[in-house]
Each structure stands twice: as structure tokens, then as C-alpha cells.
Write a structure and sequence with these properties.
This protein is α/β, with parallel strands linked by helices. It has nine helices and twelve strands. Strands 1, 4, 5, 6, 7, 8, 9, 10, 11 and 12 form a ten-stranded mixed β-sheet that branches. It has a two-stranded antiparallel ribbon with strand order 2-3. Helix 1 packs across helix 4.
């Protein structure tokens, strides 16, 4: 059973960002961005929250805010590898059986979306759960930088198995389309399996890590949410995050 005592949210973070160096510590009204994300995870109220940092200054920022953080190997290849490493180091007795991978560059994410992602694991056949919101703008459908989750979420259906994840939609495919949001909930065994698998061909070709799971017959549940959080990748994104969060204060 999924409960607070056996669930952990791990936020991977590293300073090396090509388009926005030092991104986790970017200032948002006097608060480092990673702290804003940590606050959202705390507000979700689903379990312990841990920041898995590649550098000490990220961990120190979280501890200064009263949070829990640890430093991991800086050269780990992905956020998934970082959360798996942090989990193994922090929880050798395997207390935590459900793990949320929450990206550290989503300072506006709705805590309800984090809770809904975890709820996708209530079906015992699901290995990994993630979230997606309906796309209403045709420009977003055509934008290859927006990943689309292909899942039968039409009508009143709230959860469905992922069939694919695409950057470019086939012209013959029909709406609605779903904007994939890169937050994942794992069963612990599924996370450990996932990071042990080699990079798959479709993962490499599409630069989409989740294809590794589908290519190895792991079942991904896509849960419908109402809003897409702002992902901060550029200075312009950071300015937008500042405006959005100023309005919320």
C-alpha cells in the first residue's frame, strides 16, 4: 500500500546546464529555484523529500531552507541514475518502496500533479507512472520540443497505459494530444531495473529516456492533469518563472 512512510520524493539537481548555468541556484525573489521546487514537493504531502545534488552548494541551499539533501557523484549520466544512487545510499534497508523523480527545474508545478503522478501506481501492474495535460494549441502539437504522450485519455478517462512518446506527430494521428510532463513515480524495483538497462535504440534516436522502459516491456501509466508547469531551461524561462511566482505570492 502506498503510504507516506514508504514513499520518497527525490529531486535530482546539478549546476551544469548548457543554456542556464547554475540553474538550481537561480534567484526567484530571493529564493533559489531548487528551494521553490522542494517547497512544492513538501506541499504535495506524500512522503519524505530529498534533494540529490551533484554539487555541495545545492545541498547547502536546501539545508539552509530546512530541507534534506545529499551530494551524489557529479558525473552520473541522468536524473534517473542520480535518484537511484541517492536512494541506494540513503535507504539501504529499503524502507522506501515508492519513489517520485521530480525535476529540479519545475518551480511552478502544482503539488496536486505530484500526488496524481504517485496515484498512477495504485494499479499493481504499473511499473512507472507519469503525467500529461491536454494540448490545446496547434503550435504546441507541431513543436518537436514538446514531448507528446500517446495514451487513450479521451473523455472522462483519467489514467491510461502509454503506447508511445513522440516529439513529432504523424499527420494521420488525431487529437487530442497530451503534453508529457517529466515527473515519474516508480516502484522501487522498477527504478532499480530501469537504471540497470542499457540505452535502447528508440531512446537514443529520440533523446527520450522513457522509451527505454517501453522498449523493455515496462508498463507506464499516464495520468491526466490540468496544467503544464513551466520548465526553466533558459534565461527567458527564468524571467517567466519570476513573473508567475510573483503573482502567486
Amino acid at each position: 500500500m502506498i503510504e507516506q512512510h514508504n514513499t520518497i520524493v527525490i529531486i535530482p539537481a546539478r549546476m551544469a546546464s548548457t543554456r542556464l548555468p547554475g540553474k538550481p541556484l537561480a534567484d526567484i525573489h530571493g529564493v533559489p529555484m531548487i528551494v521553490e521546487v522542494w517547497k512544492r514537493a513538501i506541499a504535495a504531502n506524500i512522503g519524505h523529500v530529498l534533494v540529490a545534488a551533484a554539487e555541495n552548494q545545492i545541498a547547502e541551499a536546501i539545508r539552509a531552507a530546512g530541507g534534506d539533501a545529499m551530494t551524489t557523484e557529479p558525473r552520473l549520466p541522468s536524473g534517473s541514475d542520480r535518484i537511484a544512487a541517492a536512494l541506494a545510499l540513503r535507504d539501504g534497508v529499503k524502507k522506501f518502496q515508492y519513489v517520485i523523480n521530480l525535476q529540479g527545474d519545475l518551480p511552478t508545478i502544482d503539488p496536486l500533479s505530484i500526488r496524481r503522478c504517485l496515484a498512477g501506481l495504485t494499479n499493481d501492474s504499473v511499473d512507472i507512472a507519469t503525467i500529461a495535460a491536454q494540448i490545446s494549441d496547434e503550435a504546441d502539437v507541431a513543436n518537436p520540443n514538446i514531448v507528446k504522450a500517446i495514451a487513450p485519455l479521451e473523455g472522462e478517462r483519467e489514467v491510461a497505459y502509454a503506447r508511445d512518446f513522440l516529439r513529432v506527430i504523424d499527420p494521420e494521428m488525431q487529437a487530442p494530444f497530451w503534453h508529457h510532463i517529466g515527473v515519474y513515480a516508480y516502484r522501487r524495483a522498477s527504478l532499480e531495473k530501469f537504471v540497470s538497462l542499457p540505452v535502447s535504440t528508440r531512446e537514443k534516436n529520440r533523446s527520450l529516456e522513457q522509451m527505454r522502459a517501453l522498449d523493455n516491456d515496462m508498463k507506464i501509466a499516464v495520468v491526466k492533469v490540468d496544467t503544464v508547469p513551466l520548465g526553466v531551461d533558459t534565461p527567458a524561462d527564468l524571467e517567466m518563472a519570476r513573473r508567475l511566482l510573483k503573482d502567486q505570492k
